[in-house]
Design brief:
Layout: H1 3-6, H2 10-16, H3 22-36, E1 43-47, H4 55-60, E2 64-69, H5 72-85, E3 89-93, E4 105-110, H6 121-134, E5 135-146, H7 148-151, E6 159-163, E7 166-175, E8 180-189, E9 192-201, H8 205-214, E10 218-223, E11 237-243
Parallel strand pairs: 1-2, 1-4, 2-3, 4-5
Antiparallel strand pairs: 5-11, 6-7, 7-8, 8-9, 10-11
Length: about 250
């Protein structure tokens, strides 16, 4: 099975959940709203929404939010969190390559390098084509991915990090020819070693722009962070904005 079919389970919640700070989430949500200029009540699709980290705060701000994800585990957590927060989000289980809507949303967001999972670039292009179809005329998409220019400058070494009560060994790698990077996580729990790994495509802004335009979307602009920073080779993130068609939101 592909890594993304098994990675996003209760282990992911325990390891990644404690690492996602409320401040980082707030900054990302504010950035999404500002960069897309979302009007009150706009319909938003959070693609690969996970446990609702972005979708729920957007719903709390009054937007009509739909979340699509493949993981039953993460969607179950998202539904519980939305009930606790007292907000309505439409949760759907599905593969991001087969987005089922047509001209449904004012905006689609894909954050935290949830674009680029597939080893075959034609499959990643299918995701963008599905986004284009799901957007209303003039609708916008925001794609947040790791910046390859930044990644290749990093000293990639094994390191430890804390995840709640767990101490996790991260073993990162980079394939500069394939343009992919990933990590294996290992930790001791219940007297046994556990492990999980992920593997994603990393793009330069040039490559990402070409992919977006190949899918029939119109490139609008790009940022290097969530508070208006310009993109540079030292920017950790590429946050690209594109539009379906020519009309405005």
């Amino acid at each position: 099975m592909a890594w993304w079919e098994t990675f996003f389970d209760d282990r992911y919640l325990r390891i990644y959940g404690p690492r996602a700070s409320p401040e980082a989430t707030r900054q990302q949500v504010e950035g999404i709203i500002a960069y897309l200029g979302l009007p009150p009540g706009a319909s938003v699709l959070d693609l690969a929404c996970g446990y609702g980290r972005i979708a729920i705060p957007l719903a709390q701000r009054g937007f009509q939010v739909t979340g699509l994800d493949l993981s039953d585990v993460l969607l179950g957590q998202a539904r519980a969190a939305a009930r606790e927060a007292g907000v309505q989000v439409n949760w759907y289980r599905g593969d991001m390559r087969d987005i089922p809507w047509t001209e449904e949303f004012d905006a689609v967001v894909s954050v935290f390098t949830s674009f680029g999972y597939f080893a075959d670039e034609r499959e990643n292009l299918r995701v963008l084509e599905g986004i284009r179809r799901a957007l209303k005329p003039g609708g916008q998409v925001l794609i947040d991915v790791m910046n390859r220019d930044w990644r290749v400058r990093q000293d990639i070494q094994r390191h430890w990090f804390e995840a709640g009560e767990l101490i996790v060994l991260a073993e990162p790698w980079l394939d500069p020819v394939a343009g992919r990077t990933g990590e294996t996580w290992r930790w001791l729990e219940g007297g046994e070693w556990q492990s999980m790994e992920f593997d994603v495509r990393i793009y330069t802004a040039t490559e990402l722009k070409a992919m977006i335009e190949a899918a029939g979307l119109r490139w609008v602009t790009v940022y290097g962070g969530w508070t208006g920073e310009p993109l540079t080779p030292l920017s950790r993130r590429i946050i690209a904005i594109a539009r379906q068609g020519l009309s405005m939101l």
